[in-house]
Amino acid sequence: MKSVLSLFSVLLLSTIIFTGCGDPKPYHYPNYDIIKPEVTCKPKRTNIQKLLLSYLGKPYVWAEEGPDAFDCSGLTYNIYGSMGVTIPRTASEQAKMGKSIPFPNLEYGDLIFFGSTNKRSKRINHVGIYLGSGWFAHASSKDRKVMFTHFEKEPRYLKRMKLCRRYLSKNERNRYMTCDTPLKKMKISSSRYTTPWKTGMKLPRKAVP
Fold it and tell me: Helix, strand, or coil here: 84?
């Protein structure tokens, strides 16, 4: 009996070792595996600013959530996740959470959600982070990078705006993470099992596959 248990233990240990030492899945566009960012700081607006500045100019790559490339919701998912605030991965799901805020009352770090210019359409297809004084940050599929945009210079974004959400209270002590509808479950992976887009890799021809 002891020899059987010993053999079972050796086989189990071998399986764990070989599974853990395997190489991650190579990058393939688009990579829909969701990699949860490492928590590196506390949920504060100053940290949102630091993270944004470090990502400014990074390329837009569909389905990526960093740290070397982002799509629009991948950027917001990474920034809030890096502060320990878990939010959904897609813009449409992110728009269901948080506190609804009128546009004139936006604070730094609030999220702005966009759709088509059709006022009847409620579909969300883009998200940005409000910076103040009419500026917002986003991973732009048009310009293919993380950038700052001003509403006066790009008035089409005002026509596309659908709603605004706040996850952190003004004093940063509370989090508004409730929603009215059930959220889709996310299957989370890590760079141990899958390879994100990395600097030096070839950029996809099309921003959106």
Answer: coil
| Mean per-residue pLDDT of the chain | 91
Q: Establish whether 138 is a catalytic residue.
A: yes
Is 179 in the active site?
A: no
CA-CA distance, 63 to 195, in Å (whole number)?
12
Which is the catalytic residue, given 21, 28, 41, 72? Answer: 72
Tell me how crowded residue 96 is: count the other CB atoms within 10 A of its CB.
Answer: 18
Phi, psi of 140 (to 5 degrees): -90, 125
- Indicate the pTM of the whole model: 0.89
Which pair of structure tokens corresponds to residue 134? 């009419």
Length of the chain: 209
**Catalytically annotated residue among 21, 28, 41, 126:** 126
User: What CA–CA distance (Å, rounded) separates 36 from 59?
Assistant: 19
Cβ neighbours of residue 148 under 8 Å, at least 6 residues apart? Answer: 56, 131, 135, 136, 137
User: Please, what's the largest Cα pairwise distance for the chain?
Assistant: 77
d(CA 99, CA 168): 9
Task: Give the tens place of pLDDT for each residue, 73-108.
Answer: 999 999 999 999 999 999 999 999 999 999 999 999
Please give the domain boundaries of the chain with CATH numbers for all domains. 28-189 (3.90.1720.10)
